[in-house]
Amino acid sequence: MKFKTKVKAKSFWGKSDREHMKEAFVWAANYLKINYHIDLVHVTMILDANKSYGGWTVLNSKFRFFVGVSARQEEEAIETLFHEMVHLRQYVSGKMIDLPDDVVQWKGKEITGEWAEGHTEEHDAYWNAPWEVEARKVSKKMLKKYKKKVGKNKKILDKLVKF
Q: What is the pLDDT of residue 154?
C-alpha cells in the first residue's frame, strides 16, 4: 500500500501528532488486513482541524483513496480514522461500491438512499446504512484494542500527546 499524509491545519497538527496518526493508520491497516492489496491501494490521509469532528473516504477515478479526518481531540481523531479505515477496507474488498444517483452496492445488493443529505442524527438512511453500522461497530472495537496496545507499550504511550 502506498501512503502519504496531507495536512490542512499544520499549526494544529504538529509533527508528533502527524506521526501518531500515521502509526494509528498503519496499525489499522494491519488490523483490518488491508495490506494484502499492496499494489492496488494508494491512500492519502488528509488531516484537518474543524470545530466539529468527522471523516470521509473517497475513491477517485484513478483508484486512489483519500481518507480524511477532522478532529480536535486525540480519541475522536483516532476513532474517526479507524471508522474511515473500515470504509477503506469495504471499498478495497469490493464489499461496497458507490454507483451513480445515490446508489450503493453492498455485498452485491443495490441500496438506494439519500446518503449525501447529511449526517445528522435524524437522517436515518445514513445512520442505518449497513456500511455505517459496520464501520461504527468495528471502529469502536479497534479503538479499545488500540488503546490497550498503546497502554502496554510504554514507548508509544510516552509519545502520545493531547491534541
A: 46
DSSP 9: -
Q: What are the residues whose beta carbons fall under 8 Å from the beta carbon of 53, sequence distance 6 or more?
A: 70, 71, 72, 73, 76, 77, 80
- The residue with cell 470504509 is 87
Mean pLDDT of the chain: 79
| Residue with cell string 496499525 | 27
Where are the chain's structural domains? 2-151
- Could you say which DSSP state residue 73 is in? S
pLDDT (tens digit, 9 = 90+) per residue, 12-22? 777 888 888 88
Print burial letters for 64-103: b (CB count within 10 Å at least 16), e (below 16): ebbbbbbbeebebbbbbbbbbbbbbbbbbeebbeeeeeee
Reported as a single tens digit per residue, the pLDDT across 25-49 is 889 988 998 866 556 667 777 777 7
Distance of CA 102 to the CA centre of its chain: 21
The average pLDDT across 81-103 equals: 90
- Count of residues in the chain: 163
